[in-house]
Amino acid sequence: MDEIIKQLTHDNNLLEQQWSDIFSRIEEASISNDSKLILNALVDYLLTEPIDSLPCLLKYLLITMVIEQLIKKEVSIEINDLINVFIRILDSSRVDQLYLKFLETIYKNFEIGERLCSTPIKTDLIEKILQSLQKKTFVFNSNEDTEKWETFLTQTIFSNSTNDMNILNKQDIIEEMKANFQQFYKHAVQQSQQSSVWLKIATILNESSSKIFTNETSWNMILSDTNLSIENISFDCITQLIQSYKNDNELVKIGYTKFLTIFERLILVNNYDDAYQLSSNIIIPNLSIIDLEILFCTIIRLCPIVEHRDLFCSRILDSLILALANLQIKKNLAIIVFDLALAILKLCVYDAPDLSYSLLRRNDFYPWQELINGLVDLVKTCISYDIIIENNFFSKLDQLENIIDLIYRKIQAYPIISKVIHPISVEAVLRWSNIQYNGSHHVYRMGNSIMNLIDLRQINEDICMKFIDAIQTRVHCDNEEINNKSRLFFNNMSQHLGEFIMQLKRLSHNIHSKLATLFLSLLDYSFYDEDHNMTFHYVTLISILYRTASCIFNENDARLYEPFLDRMYMNVKDDNETMFHQIWVNFWLIAGVQVQTIAANHIEQFLDHTFNRKDMCLSSLLLTLSVQHTELFYSHFDDLVNILFTDNGQYLTNLFGLFLLIVKKYPEIVSSKHIDYIFSSIETISFSNELCIIIQTLSCVANYHPYLFDRHCGKIICLIIEKQNLLIFECFRNYIISSIIINNENKANEYLNILIDILKNKKCSNEIQQDIFYTCLLIGLKYKQLLINRRYDFKVLGSNLIVNYIDNATISELDQTTIKQAQLEIEKIELCINKTKMNIKTEQLNTNNIPSWSYQVSKLLNNPSNNDWRLLSKQLGFSCSEIKHWSMQTNPCMALLNEWFITHTTEEAIYSLIKVLNDIGRYDVEQIIRQEVLKTGQTIPNDLSVDIKRLPPVFLSFHSNEQIRVTKLKDHLEQAGYACQMYDEQTEINILESLIRGSKVIVCCINILYDQSENCSKVFHLILNMKKPFILLYMEEQTWPSESKLKSILDDFLYIEFYNDTKVNDWPENKFIELLSQIRYHVAPDPDMICEQYHHWFVPRLDNLIFLKSSNEQKQNNSISFNDIPLVVSHPQIIISYQWDCQKDVLNLYKQLTQLGYRIWLNIFQMGGGDSLLDKYNIAIQQSLCLLVCITPKYMKSINCQREISLANTFHKPIIPLLLEETNTWPPPDLILSIFVHKSYIDFRHSNRYDRWTGKQFVLLLAQLKKIIPNVETDKPRHLLEMQRPISASRHSNNNDQRSKRISSAPIIPKSQACSLM
């Protein structure tokens, strides 16, 4: 038969033609004993079958027919031979159905499986079959092939049927060949992903012997194959694996690491479905029993390398992290859990922040101090999400905000963390604040939280400036989309900027400048939207403004905000906006106290707001400002008085302090209309303590102008009886005493009767009784006889003090103190009254040249504004030092006008004022002047040839032959602070007239030619006629010719010998200093002009006694030590008037009297400041109690000295003449000096020239002083108060840094404020 098979054709058509013959031959053929030849011949025929041959039924029939013949004739075939031919076909690369037919037929008909399993089991042959099967992929091109092969392998060779004996997967065979079948099973599992045939095989094997094919050993075999591709593991295989391990915890523990390996490999090949099944069925249910660290490390390792991060989060991590959130995790895993949260967050996908936060929010779990670097990485990772675009308003990305908030809470507990996170946070916020960046909602929400991570301790000006710039840019941004998304972010940014400002406290000028610009720009936008919600601009303003206000400490910074504040004020005033009002008020309440000089510029606004709106919010600031700037409230005093009693006095509580301060400082401001209004209003408002204080404050007015209260005396008495209030009685007491001092004894008797009547009133309280007794004592100190007349009444009323005082009986120490106090109070009131008289006289003296309309003009120009009296002064040419000096006066504009009218004719002064006022936009003031001038019948020229600029104050008159020396003199005077103009005799007289009028003092440089010049003579007479102060400088030694034009005039005046015999210098240096001091009498130097050579020329050098350099002869004399001697005093008791040449004697006198306790005013110690010495003297003479006049021949010629005497006489000051040198006659013949006619002098002419102030004459001087100033105990040692010597009076030293020495001051009268040095 084998030969027949060998001869068979492969051609299907030919085979069909020959088939009947072939069939017959095979049926009839004999079969040899070597049956394997037949099988091999059949296999050879099959193996030689062409690949492209089409399926042929006859060939299938051929195989069946041959096998059946072998079976039918019961041919014995060895199992080995059967397996060999089986293997030959199975090992073939072809897997078509012809081959399968052969394998099926031979396997079934010869019962190969049963024979292999029969005892003994043919393990070697079974192994061959298994190995041959493993060579096959079983991947087919058609489903038909797949199904037929699957049927053959899973129903013929391997089967789940327990009755089938012809299979290879019998339990005993598998157990016998365990290793072989495990390896075969492993291969089946590995190939299951590629072929369903292999999957079926693995399934049958698993079902037939699960213990062998699902244990750890089996999976170890699978996973130990490094060449295995995870793609080859099928879903069913994973399912089988899951089912096998699902309920076996011990098995899971053993194989857990292998599961994770499969899990990891599945993720890496993007098989998320199988990985999810493995995770949800094996990993997650067993989290409590497995090693979590390995799991965490696996996920951490996977996070940065997974391809589909979104799927990884949603399919794998979501359920896993949810399970972990409810799991108790040991703290020793905290750091790796944190790393897991960080690794998940670094996936930078939509779901990651939510999963990360689920891990991070564990309480009391993480060792945060050990995670500083991790937290930095966490913040950076959160920030990296700004590249994700998310259009939804809310999303899972909002968990980034929660993560940042969590970090912020940890920073609060562990501040060291903030040091590292700070710069990252600042950089992120500034990046997102850039208008060019258009982030999603989650970014700006995260930014709100990241701002909290900014460390305030690390804030600097650079960060602050960048925040301001960012906010400023946002203010002007018109991109509505960005504005809507970032509104809360920028609101928060503004609030943090406010915190930065508070942290810095001291802001640079640049920051203030930027902030001021920002605030001003915010006002260009609405503060509320259509729904009346606060806009970003409003939030920004209130977030920063108040904190900024608290950081304004100097004027330059404060001025930057004035345009903003003025605009705010206009909004408040014009629109009546409550919102603007609150902002404006609050800013000033904070900043106004710190920069009072700037706030003072806005007092008009504050008062207008307070009085017109009746809003008392600024009352505390007004009170503060009034302490240093009381004069600015002067013009609003009427409004203040009116509002105090408006609306039933409800504003008393807020404003009574302001009223009190103004009245105490300027009691003269209160007029009869004010007093009348106050007392008429008392009846209409509720009685309160504030009202009592106001009435008490009027006691200051009563000291100065008691007549104002005459009409209201009865009402005051009724109030005293009705209210029994000591504060009201204090006002009444001062009124009584002042009236008594001004009037006479009859008035005193009248008031004493009134007081006794009040005492007899049964309603009179004990406190009021004691105050009335004290007032009666005050009256008695002036008119004791009045008390004597009423002794009986005081005896009955029980005033032992007054009775003892009347009887001159022994008085207790306590009563003595009371009497002394009463005496001092009398003196104090007398001083007030005298001061009032002197002020009236001084005002009359100072305002002779000023038109009446000046008061009205001054009231307007004194109000601070951009074009007030200061700008007028600048336009008129006055120096900064003069303006600064006037600003410290009560009425600066009046001082300016007085100066202007003194140095100009009335016509020139008015014309120039009107022109400048028009130039600076003060049309209101210009109109007032024009109207007032017209009322007087005068006309104002439309044009006038006049130099509107203020002329230099010093005029140098000279002859042309002194041109060189006078030019040099001018240069030196200007270096010492005095601007000069110089003109010789060749200048036209009409030009000189206006120039001289515009100067303050004229220096006449006299020589022979000056005397002989007709023009010089005219100039000098012009000076005399204009009554201008002048100083005579003799430029050479004068030998007056008989025809001299000026000798008779000049002989009557003092001069300075301004020539030098040695010809080394142009003039003696000490004479130049004397000239400076003489000019200083009339003009204050301009400190801006003073050069280094003459720096502090006006400061006395104590080593030389005076501020001029001493000659050699002077240096040999004993010097005077001024240690512990005050050089500058306030409220002096004595003024010493003297001529320059006796200065050393005067200094000795000054020292001795000061050491005895007197307060003395000396002109050489008054060189500083902006007033002229004449102005200083005017003030000092009013305050002093007497004038000491040091008479010498030169003194009698000194115009300045004569003026001092005249002014003292005007104010009725006691004058004590001290004759120091011989004079031709006594009293002096001069008209002014004729006041000495009835005065005797104290003769010091023959005293020791080195110690003049000793002996009988000095004792006589002290006796006279004692009468005038009884309070100084000259016979007892005095304890000097320690006070600071001014720098201007420091000792001359080469060491410029030497500190000034603390020295003692002169004594003061009891209860008087201590003198302070300038």
Structural topology:
Blueprint: H1 2-6, H2 12-28, H3 35-47, H4 57-72, H5 79-90, H6 97-109, H7 112-117, H8 123-134, H9 143-157, H10 171-176, H11 178-191, H12 196-208, H13 210-213, H14 216-223, H15 235-245, H16 249-268, H17 272-283, H18 292-302, H19 309-325, H20 334-345, H21 352-360, H22 372-384, H23 399-413, H24 416-432, H25 441-450, H26 461-475, H27 480-504, H28 509-522, H29 536-549, H30 555-560, H31 562-575, H32 578-594, H33 596-599, H34 603-612, H35 619-628, H36 637-644, H37 652-665, H38 672-682, H39 689-704, H40 713-723, H41 726-742, H42 745-760, H43 766-782, H44 784-789, H45 791-797, H46 800-807, H47 813-846, H48 854-861, H49 869-875, H50 880-887, H51 892-902, H52 906-919, H53 923-935, E1 954-957, H54 963-975, E2 980-983, H55 989-997, E3 1001-1006, H56 1008-1012, H57 1014-1025, E4 1030-1034, H58 1047-1050, E5 1055-1057, H59 1069-1080, H60 1112-1116, E6 1134-1137, H61 1143-1155, E7 1160-1161, H62 1173-1183, E8 1186-1191, H63 1193-1197, H64 1199-1210, E9 1215-1219, E10 1242-1243, H65 1255-1268, E11 1282-1284, E12 1302-1304
Parallel strand pairs: 1-2, 1-3, 3-4, 4-5, 6-7, 6-8, 8-9, 9-10
Antiparallel strand pairs: 11-12
Helix pairs in contact: 2-4, 3-4, 3-5, 4-6, 5-6, 5-8, 6-9, 8-11, 9-12, 11-12, 11-14, 14-16, 15-17, 16-17, 16-18, 17-19, 18-20, 19-21, 20-21, 20-22, 21-23, 22-24, 23-25, 24-25, 25-27, 26-27, 26-28, 27-29, 28-29, 29-32, 31-32, 32-35, 35-37, 36-37, 37-39, 39-41, 40-41, 41-42, 41-43, 41-47, ...
Domain Death: 854-933
Region (Disordered): 1285-1318
Domain TIR: 1130-1244
